[in-house]
Amino acid sequence: EITCRDWSSDVCSSDLEGKEKTTTLELTYQQRFIQVIATPLGGELQDHTLLLCQDLTPIRRLETVRRDFISNISHELRTPLASLKALAETLQLSAIDDPQTSRHFLERMDTEIDALTQMVNELLELARIESGRVPIDLKPTDSYRLLVAASERLKMQAERAGLLLEVEAQPDLPKILADGPRLEQVLVNIIHNAIKFTSPGGKITVFAYPESGMVCFGVQDTGTGIPRDMLPRVFERFYKADQARSGGGTGLGLSIARHLVEMHAGRIWAESQPGRGSTFYFTIPQARP
Ligand code: ADP
Q1: In degrees rounded to 5, what are phi and psi of residue 22?
Q2: What is the pTM of this model?
Q3: Which of 235, 189, 220, 217 lies closest to 286 in space, CA to CA?
Q4: Count of alpha carbons within 13 Å of 197, Cβ hemisphere only?
Q5: Cα–Cα distance, 200 to 195 (Å, whole number)
Q6: Cβ-contact 38, 26 below 8 angstroms
Q7: Distance (Å) from CA 193 to ligand 1 centroid
Q8: Which residues form the pocket of ligand 1, taking CB atoms under 6 Å from any ligand atom?
Q9: Which tens digits make up the pLDDT trace of 215-248?
Q10: Does residue 261 contact residue 99 with C-beta atoms inside 8 Å?
Q11: CB 142 within 8 A of CB 177
């Protein structure tokens, strides 16, 4: 809803002096960028102005995402590199003479190297997926088995974190058309997040149910939750809703999950109540009998 007042000062026809004029409006409240082109008309339409309004919001958003992406990569790489540098220097200067301290430093260096390796692997995976170089092999796949397989992989980790991990689904769920290993990875990423963001004593429920030609999968936790305005952003690359708690995370897991789900013609979203927990859902088309 652009009111006359919003743009009249920029493109008011009396200011045009017969020339075309372009201006960009930022509607702060609606978070939209509108480009307005005012073209004075001639002939029979003398004294009239043609106004062309274009919504540039998606293009602007893409520019911002690209800019943020570069600065995020640099930032994310710099943190483990700076730790490695500090650890190596301390080791060189003094700790090397003390076997126990040096072992401890080497363990910490190993952890930092693992984090760097994971980030580079996830970046490569994301780049391959985004450039369409990841072939997906869609086959009729047992939904229930997929759910159980992903949960089993994380059962021990959940127990170690003091969490109850439960599967709630009917074993005779309809089959889905899916690339099994890739979709299992999506579930693993989401369950892994639920474990990371839930305090001991909490509960994680992995569920699935059929819904109008699709199977809807979900992971519910009783963890920290995600503020409402941040919910849609968690699927962006490098986005971390809670910088302090996300610790070793790269912020790439959910963007990879989103791409993979969309490659299956499915949809992924999240609901959350801060302080109470979150539920991540995704849908995958059922396989035709
Ligand atoms: P990360 O490697 O940081 O976990 P993701 O892309 O998997 O990256 O998740 C992005 C961000 O979304 C996380 O850093 C966290 O802030 C938020 N998030 C994801 N899952 C949950 C969850 N179950 N509970 C609370 N916050 C979550």
Answers
A1: -120, 140
A2: 0.73
A3: 217
A4: 29
A5: 9
A6: no
A7: 6
A8: 189, 193-194, 197, 221, 223-224, 226, 234, 239-242, 246, 249-255, 278
A9: 999 999 999 999 988 888 899 887 777 655 545 5
A10: no
A11: no
